[in-house]
Q: What sequence folds into this?
C-alpha cells in the first residue's frame, strides 16, 4: 500500500513537472507582441527635448510658500487633513498607482509598458503573491535601487512624509531608478497585492494609511483585476472607501482577458460590475479596460482587435495625464488653498464665538466644550455659508473639529483680523488673491503659451498692500 502511494506521488510530480516544462517552453517560444503602438501613443521615439517647466514650478512653489503656507501653518491645517505639501511634491512628476488583488498582473503590466521583460530591470512576477513592497519606479541615469529609509530622508524627493508610518514600513518601501524615457515624464508605483485572508496587523505597518497617502497624491489610479479574482472582501472594500472622491482618476482593468472565450468573457465582465457596484457610488460607471497586458501575443480565436484598441485607449489616457501635468498640479494647489481658507474661516468663527460667549464668571473650558459639541446651536457653519463665498459641499465634517480642538486648544489661535502686518499684509487676503488671481493667471498663461516665469506683481496684483477688512478704520 505504501509503495502504491509513493508511486502515485512520483507520477503526480512527474506530471506537474512536465506541464511546467511545457509552459516554460511555450512562453519562451511564444512570439512577442508588436510594441510600436506603445511607443507611438506615448511618443517614446521622439527625439525632441523634454519641455522645461522649471519656471512654472518655481512660480507655483513661490505662490504656495508666500500666500498659502502662512495661513496653513497658523491654523494647523495639517493636523486636520494629515496632508503636508512639500517642495518635492510640488515639483514631482505625475504619479500612476497600481492597486488590486495579488497576482492579477500589476507588476507584469509595468514591465510590459516599460519594455523591461527579460532585462535586468524587470520586476519579479509569478503566480504566487510576489510583491510585498511598495515599489516606486523613477527615472535615473543608470539602474539603481534606493532603500526606503534613504527615500524618506531625502527632502528633495516627494516621499519624505512617509517616515511617519514607521521603520517597519520603510523596510517595505523600495525605489528603483531606471534609464527609461517614459519615466522622465511619469513615476510608477507598484503595491502589494490585496490578500483577503490576511489580517492587517500581520503586515507590520498601517497598510490602509499608506495606501491613502499614495492615493491622495496619485494622478491616475489603475485598479487591476483578472477573471479569477473578482470577489470583494474586507480589505478591497476598505480600499474602495479610500478611493471615494477620486472616481475621476480611477481606471478599472480586467486583465488576462485573452484567456477567456467570448461568452465567458461577457459573464466575467458582468460579474466584475456586479461586485464593484456597491463600492462605487457614482452616477456614471467607471471606465473599464479589457485586455491582456503582457508581452506575448494574444491567444488565437480571441478578440485581438478589441484588446488592442482597449490597450491604445488606456495608453492615451496615460499620455493625457502626462500632458496635463502642470494644469493638474496648479489645480491641486488651488484646491488645497481653498480647503486651507475654509479651515481658517471656521477656526476664526469658533474663536470669535468663544470670545463672544465668555464672561468674567464663565468657565472657558465648559463654554468652548458646549460650542464644539453643538456648533449648529451657535450657527458656526451657517455663518460661514452666509458671509463668505464658501460652498456647503466644501465644508469639512463637524466631527473632525472635535478631535482637532481636542489636540489644539482654542487659546492657541489668533483671530484672522490679528493675522496682518504692515509689510507682509493679511494672511487671508493673500490666500484669497492666490485662489482668485495668481493661480488662475498661472493656469491661463499655460493655455496661451506665455512664459509663466515672466509673471510679476504688476500682472497679478501682488504688489498691492492688502487692506485689513477686519480692522476698524
A:
Amino acid at each position: 500500500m505504501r509503495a502504491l502511494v509513493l508511486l502515485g506521488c512520483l507520477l503526480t510530480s512527474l506530471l506537474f513537472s512536465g506541464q511546467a516544462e511545457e509552459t516554460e517552453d511555450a512562453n519562451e517560444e511564444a512570439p512577442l507582441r508588436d510594441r510600436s503602438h506603445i511607443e507611438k501613443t506615448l511618443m517614446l521615439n521622439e527625439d525632441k527635448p523634454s519641455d522645461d517647466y522649471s519656471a512654472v514650478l518655481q512660480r507655483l512653489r513661490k505662490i504656495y510658500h508666500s500666500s498659502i503656507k502662512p495661513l496653513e501653518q497658523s491654523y494647523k491645517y495639517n493636523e486636520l487633513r494629515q496632508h503636508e505639501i512639500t517642495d518635492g511634491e510640488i515639483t514631482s512628476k505625475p504619479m500612476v498607482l497600481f492597486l488590486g488583488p495579488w497576482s492579477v498582473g500589476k507588476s507584469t503590466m509595468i514591465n510590459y509598458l516599460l519594455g523591461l521583460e527579460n532585462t535586468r530591470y524587470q520586476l519579479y512576477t509569478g503566480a504566487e503573491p510576489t510583491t510585498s513592497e511598495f515599489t516606486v519606479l523613477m527615472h535615473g541615469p543608470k539602474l539603481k535601487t534606493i532603500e526606503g529609509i534613504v527615500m524618506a530622508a531625502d527632502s528633495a524627493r516627494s516621499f519624505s512624509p512617509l517616515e511617519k508610518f514607521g521603520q517597519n514600513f520603510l523596510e517595505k518601501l523600495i525605489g528603483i531608478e531606471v534609464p527609461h524615457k517614459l519615466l522622465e515624464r511619469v513615476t510608477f508605483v507598484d503595491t502589494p497585492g490585496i490578500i483577503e485572508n490576511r489580517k492587517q496587523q500581520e503586515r507590520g505597518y498601517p497598510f490602509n494609511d499608506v495606501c491613502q497617502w499614495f492615493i491622495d497624491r496619485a494622478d491616475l489610479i489603475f485598479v487591476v483585476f483578472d477573471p479569477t479574482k473578482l470577489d470583494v472582501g474586507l480589505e478591497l472594500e476598505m480600499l474602495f472607501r479610500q478611493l471615494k472622491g477620486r472616481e475621476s482618476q480611477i481606471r478599472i482593468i480586467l486583465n488576462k482577458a485573452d484567456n477567456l472565450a467570448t461568452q465567458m468573457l461577457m459573464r466575467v465582465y458582468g460579474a466584475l460590475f456586479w461586485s464593484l457596484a456597491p463600492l462605487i457610488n457614482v452616477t456614471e460607471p467607471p471606465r473599464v479596460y479589457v485586455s491582456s497586458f503582457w508581452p506575448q501575443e494574444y491567444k488565437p480565436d480571441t478578440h485581438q482587435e478589441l484588446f488592442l484598441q482597449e490597450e491604445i485607449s488606456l495608453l492615451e489616457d496615460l499620455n493625457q495625464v502626462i500632458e496635463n501635468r502642470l494644469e493638474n498640479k496648479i489645480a491641486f494647489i488651488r484646491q488645497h488653498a481653498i480647503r486651507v481658507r475654509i479651515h481658517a474661516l471656521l477656526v476664526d468663527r469658533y474663536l470669535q464665538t468663544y470670545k463672544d460667549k465668555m464672561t468674567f464668571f464663565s468657565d472657558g473650558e465648559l463654554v468652548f466644550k458646549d460650542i464644539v459639541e453643538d456648533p449648529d446651536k451657535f450657527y458656526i457653519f451657517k455663518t460661514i455659508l452666509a458671509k463668505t463665498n464658501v460652498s456647503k459641499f466644501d465644508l469639512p465634517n463637524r466631527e473632525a473639529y472635535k478631535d482637532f480642538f481636542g489636540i489644539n486648544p482654542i487659546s492657541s489661535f489668533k483671530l484672522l483680523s490679528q493675522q496682518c502686518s504692515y509689510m507682509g499684509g493679511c494672511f487671508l487676503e493673500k490666500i484669497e488673491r492666490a485662489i482668485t488671481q495668481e493661480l488662475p493667471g498661472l493656469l491661463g498663461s499655460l493655455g496661451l503659451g506665455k512664459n509663466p516665469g515672466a509673471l510679476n506683481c504688476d500682472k497679478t496684483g501682488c504688489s498691492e498692500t492688502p487692506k485689513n477688512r477686519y480692522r476698524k478704520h
